[in-house]
Amino acid sequence: LLEFLQAMIVTSPLRASASPVGDIPTFVFRAAEQHKDEVVLIDAATEQRYTISDIYTTATRLAAGLTLGGYGGKTISVFDNTELRCIYVYYAALMAGGAYQSLDIDTPQDSLRERIAHSQTPIVFTTTPHLLRLQDAVKGLGIAIAVLDQGCGGNSKPTSGIEIGVDFTCFPFSHLLVDDPSFVPVRITSTNDAMAKPAYLAYASGVQATLQPLVLSHFGLLSTFAIGRRRTGCGIDSACRTAVSAVPFADSHGIINIAHFPILSGSCIVQMSSYEPASCLAALERWRAGVFLATHAVLAAIAATAVRGKDGSVSLGGTRSFDIGQLRLVFVHELRNAHALRHKVSELLGARLVEIYGYIETGIIAGIITEHPRIENSVGLLCSGVRARVVLDGKELDEGQFGEILVSTPRLASGGAQSDAEYFHTGDYGTVTSEGVVIVKARMDDLIHLNDGSIVAPCDIEKQVLQLPGVADCAVVASRCQNADDNFDVPCVFIVPSENADNVSTSGFSVQSLAETYPGIHSRIIDCIPRSTRGEPERCNLQKLLKQANT
């Protein structure tokens, strides 16, 4: 307890704005009541348009159907990453007094089943392409499946059709749309209740080991919006009122992109279902978008295939050019340690890149923002109302020392965090300066514990390896010492040789020049480094390759 009281607790220097009081649907739709006929969402593939009135009316009918069907107050789930009709489910779940859970289609099958069972969700919404996989995942769980694009059993069925499977029921989405004038949405009338009431169940990533989700409250999902803010697009000019989104909404950040941001800001989101460079550039041109929401993978693909002409247009393979001169801002998730790509994309697209730290963890929960002078590895400032500590091996660290970043935030459904037990463990290895600037180097699970007791982040070794001759790309993972009595790691470097490398073994030989600093360091040649949508090496997959090679 004494150590906790003596901990260096950093409080955000940002001034808190007035916070919304009450539930999300009431706040959002009341704020936009005078603009109910505005188009706020567009499906890029079909060009179907969604107005605020459409969303509210359909969500209310669905909420009435969920309540009538016995699903009120429950966790309602969606298994799809790009279907815009999930916005109806999101608001309907909250209107019916429950919470919303998004199930990523990239989640492994066993994890998908475990999350559905653990959350006790009684119904999952999906689309035809993912129906068979979902049916297999819920066998024996007694789960109802509602199909957003009206298909059941892999085929199109009448809207009133119901299919009974092995311990599941499948029916079209329209089956739950009920016109009930007596239905009254569940309301929240106090800040305390808004802070305590779960609204969104989130997972750190598609490969997160733990079943315990992060529960975001109504207050938490609305706390980044200031009361009384004018609806002026993204806050710059009219050119920025249209945004093309190539970000899946299988997480809290994605759902805010389509459910909160356009309605509250006066913007319009054009949602992509295909993230191919040609599709994205065509959409930017077609809708004259001033904002582009993207992932690392999307930007890397564009950077690898597109060139910028003297007239400012962007072309692919010399076959077609795209006029995207109106583009001003590109928001991208986690480009840290990708400085070269950041610069290349900014020059190519002629737009300013703003990095968003974290899909779910501290990006939304702790409220990290990025509009701050960048220093190396910085991801921005702690948002207002957030406190942070840095801890390593149970010890509180001072400024400048690196460890796991812990945050206290009122955005979680448990309310304000006051004690050590209520600090959220981000799983990020880094530090927080006394000014509230957050620096992140690695995930805690990826750290390499050397035989001298020191700890090194993989990125520190990778930066040195990339300077060696014959190395085009690399990723470092911890390789456990083979001696049973020793409890330390040695770095294993996966290397992609450069095309002009004389001998692939040259890269491996060069790594030995780092052996004095990193005892036992060794390398393996690989065709390409597997990377996540955030651009980070998929170290779990590399660890599996390493284990296979050692057996």
From TrEMBL:
Entry similarity comment: Belongs to the ATP-dependent AMP-binding enzyme family.
Keywords: Ligase
GO molecular function annotations of the record: CoA-ligase activity
Keyword Ligase belongs to the record: yes
AMP-dependent synthetase/ligase domain ranges (all copies): 29-415
Record-linked InterPro entries: AMP-bd_C_sf (IPR045851), AMP-dep_synth/lig_dom (IPR000873), ANL_N_sf (IPR042099)
Keyword Membrane recorded: no
Protein name, UniProt field: 4-coumarate--CoA ligase
Organism name: Coemansia guatemalensis
